[in-house]
Amino acid sequence: GIQVEQSPPDLILQEGANSTLRCNFSDSVNNLQWFHQNPWGQLINLFYIPSGTKQNGRLSATTVATERYSLLYISSSQTTDSGVYFCAVRPNQAGTALIFGKGTTLSVSS
Amino acid sequence: GAVVSQHPSWVICKSGTSVKIECRSLDFQATTMFWYRQFPKQSLMLMATSNEGSKATYEQGVEKDKFLINHASLTLSTLTVTSAHPEDSSFYICSVKRANYGYTFGSGTRLTVV
Predict the structure, then answer these.
(1) N or C: at which end does chain B have fewer Cβ atoms within 10 angstroms?
(2) Using a CB-CB distance cutoff of 8 angstroms, which residues of chain B are in contact with residue A40?
(3) Nearest chain B residue to A48, by CA
(4) Closest chain A residue to B49 measured between Cα atoms?
(5) Which residues does chain A have within 8 Å of residue B38's beta carbon, measured at their own beta carbons?
(6) Least reliable range by pLDDT among A25-29, B50-54, B108-112
C-alpha cells in the first residue's frame, strides 16, 4: 500500500519561530489533508489540499502532487500550536479512506 | 465540511463486557463512514469502512467478530467492541467524507478496559 512519511518526527521551537513540516507519499493521491490533533485527541482539519497552495492566517500549505509531497508552514509559532500534526492522503487506486502518516510532534515553548 | 458527533467521549468497562460507540453525521447523509484506532503516541490506523445497508469492510488483521460495525441509517454508524480486554484499550475515532470538503472526524472515544 501507499507509504506516507512525515518529517521531522519531533520539533521543538521557541515562540515566534517559523517551521516547515513535510509529507512525502509514495503513490498518486486524489486527496490530501493536514490535521492538528489537540491534547484531547480531537483532529482539527487545517487544510484540504490535494494540489496547489492555501493560506489560513499563520498557516499555509503547498502540495506538489506530481512530485508527491506536501509542506505545511507555520509562521510566528505560538504555544497553542503545540500538538501532533498529521498528513493524510487518499490513494488514487485503492479504497476510499484516508491513510495517515506517523505525525510530527511540535512543542512550542514561551 | 460535515459535522460528526461521536458518543461517548470516554468509557471505562470491565474485561469481558461489550461497549458500543456511536458515530453520527449531523448535517450530511453518509453512505460510508470510517473507523480508526489510535494507540498512545501512535498514528491513526484504519480499522474498517462502514457501508450503509451492507456489511462493513475490515482491514487486514482486524477481527470482524470482535469489532462489530452496524451502519443502519445514512446518519448513524456504531462500533461494538465485544468481550473487551485490556489490549483493546485505545482511542477510537470515526470519520465521514463529503465531496469537495474532504474528511471530517468525530471527537473520538477513549476506551479503557480494566
Answers:
(1) C
(2) 107
(3) B102
(4) A97
(5) 41
(6) B50-54
- Give the contacts of B103 (CB within 8 A, at least 6 positions apart): A31, A33, A45, A88, A90, A98, B1, B34, B95, B96, B97
**Looking at this protein, which amino acid is placed at residue B49?**
T
Inter-residue long-range contacts of A44-52, CB under 8 Å, 24+ positions, other chains counted: A45/B1, A45/B102, A45/B103, A45/B104, A45/B105, A46/A72, A46/A85, A47/A72, A48/B1, A48/B101, A48/B102
Q: Does B82 reach chain A within 8 Å, measured CB to CB?
A: no
Nearest Cα of chain B lies from the Cα of A54 at a distance, in angstroms, of: 14
Confidence of residue B1 (pLDDT cuts 50, 70, 90): low
